[in-house]
Specification:
Blueprint: H1 2-26, H2 28-32, H3 39-49, H4 53-65, E1 85-87, E2 94-96
Antiparallel strand pairs: 1-2
Helix pairs in contact: 3-4
């Protein structure tokens, strides 16, 4: 009985490591491509062709060489020209730039248009 428990004891504690390390190595290309624009394609190749060594190498090279997603830069809104006008959101009539209230209906204008 003691012999059986000593045989089982080391594998009981290290068993998850023997499963997690190869699993991480298998999905290493997908992990490296997690912020890439073609992550889904690399993941599919890794799942379907990763069991072959050549498919895994192709997925790894693709994950390392692909460009990362570029952040989208929002353009700032420019103020209209000094003589220009905009339309009231309540009544639709033109109002001069910088007006806080519409001259026709008296509705408050948004701060972005001042």
């Amino acid at each position: 009985m003691l012999r059986l428990s000593l045989w089982f004891f080391p594998f009981f504690h290290f068993g998850p490591i023997f499963w997690l390390v190869p699993l991480f190595m298998y999905f290493l290309p997908a992990f490296l491509a997690r912020n890439k624009p073609n992550f889904t394609s690399i993941l599919i190749l890794n799942i379907l062709g990763g069991w072959t060594f050549i498919g895994w190498i192709i997925a790894l090279v693709w994950a390392i060489s692909s460009d990362s997603q570029r952040p989208v830069v929002a353009t700032a809104q420019t103020a209209p020209a000094p003589g220009a006008s905009f339309y009231c959101t309540a009544c639709g009539r033109p109002c001069p730039v910088g007006a806080r209230f519409c001259s026709a209906c008296g509705a408050a204008q948004p701060a972005a248009r001042r």
